[in-house]
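Review form for a predicted model. The reviewer records the input and the model, then writes brief findings.
Reviewer: anonymous (R2)
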Amino acid sequence: MSQKSLGNTSELQIERLKFKPILPNTLKNNFFNIKIIKEKITHSASLYHEDQIKNIFKNIYGLPIISFKKCQNVVIKKNINKKINVAVVFSGGAAPGGHNVIAGLFDGLKKLNNKNTLIGYLYGPIGILKNKYKKLQRSVIEKYRNTGGFDCIGSGRTKIETYEDLYTIEKNLKMSKIDALVMIGGDDTNTNAAILSEYLKQKKINKCIIGIPKTIDGDLKNKYIETSFGFDTATKIYSNIVGNICRDVNSSHKYWHFIRLMGRSASHITLEVALKTHPNILIIGEEIFKKNMTLNKIVENIVLIILKRQNQGKNFGVVLLSEGIVEFIPELKELIFGINDILIKKAKILDKILLLQDKKRIILDNLPKKLAFLMTTLPQEIALQLILDRDPHGNVIMSAIEVEKLLIQMVQEKISKLANKKNKHKFLPIAHFFGYEGRCGMPSNFDANYAYALGYNAVLLIIHNLTGYMSCIKNLTKPANKWKCFGIPITMMMNIEKRNGNKKPVIQKTLVDLNGRPFKKMISERNKWAFSENYISPGPIQYFGTAKITDEITKTLQYEQS
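Model under review:
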């Protein structure tokens, strides 16, 4: 493709368009000698909720895990290569590699039968509901291979939750003659894929719904989903920025940088970046929860390290924390739950009020005394941020809560109280939040290969009509050609959670395992990091050169799979 046809494109992007993802050996050549193997029957992630989940998903619950093996003399499934029309949709925040999922899906469909078609619903689930889409022809696909972002078809966070929504989707899939829909997203998106699959099954409508695991947060994982696409690239981008700050700290010996990283529930990003850069202080939400650490205790721990470093003549350092720690700190978690209840119960009154200050007064009047007092002790900015509108699923929008500034203010106050005329403690803090910077990066070689394989593998699930399944690639610490291909029932990841005041089936988020190798590795090094300047600056993602640096996988995968 000529540079002119690509429009405003960097030289690097032009070169990346030439990159050819490596497929697992199972997916090479053709689909006609791939055997489907039914492995163990599955149960929900929460056995406590199993009966409820089984009752909700009567037609797709308890399906077996599927693996694909290349072999000879396979009996070809009847009509396996008949013409099919497939649709794809992005949902939720962008993650590096999304365009390669579409490219893999497109190439797999065309390999199967050149007459197969692919369309992309525009701007997320709203595109399905409004039947707005564009045809993804080769001329379109070629512009987006190995590029970041979701801008080929856009994304959105529209919920699919009512019977009317499901009926509208059914009608639009029929109208556009779609045989299969591939939904690319995180836990909520893949939950919707299962709900839609069950709905169509109940009505005996033969449409195949497939999920693809996407989230830079890294919390959509289990034994079969070793990582979600985008995590590798995003953490490399964040590690580059944090590494640069570490280098600056070592250059000036002057500031304390408090860096909040994306990760609304799980701290996988923060842990991975810490393993790559070696900050002085690391705050992991899951550890706070296990140790039942109060906000004051967290601040005391930070101050202790700051003062010890200062006594060593090191009045500088780097603090890493995940945005989700707000929901792990006991008193703040209780406060958020209390606010959530009031936002639901007093919704009609609060919706008419424009000013946050006025909303705050009503919330304070309705909170239990203990929680109301806590809210009044918080900095004004933080208190107002806690009552901002929730996301479509009823969750606090964590990126809006500037917890790093809360910690800075509390640390400053505690250090000021400790200071006296003889010993003036100097503390110069700088606050950062890195979130959107990592979501649309040009995918690393790993994510380019992985996302492409997920899309290509989805074609196998479609032609075997494995609706309600998620495309899954394992063995990720090995070279890409040795990766293994699977399909896993989405219901095996389900539990029941309270959303917007109602109990609903949702894919269970996987938090940082405090007994896992990545966390234990960090624990073994943390005290050394606290009082040293042996930071690591990993540098930017490398796309060209030796495989040792271009194909490097995350520390998390290295330790988990070692």
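Findings: The chain has two domains: 83-230+443-499, 235-439+515-560.
Further findings: The mean pLDDT is 92.
Recommendation: see findings above.
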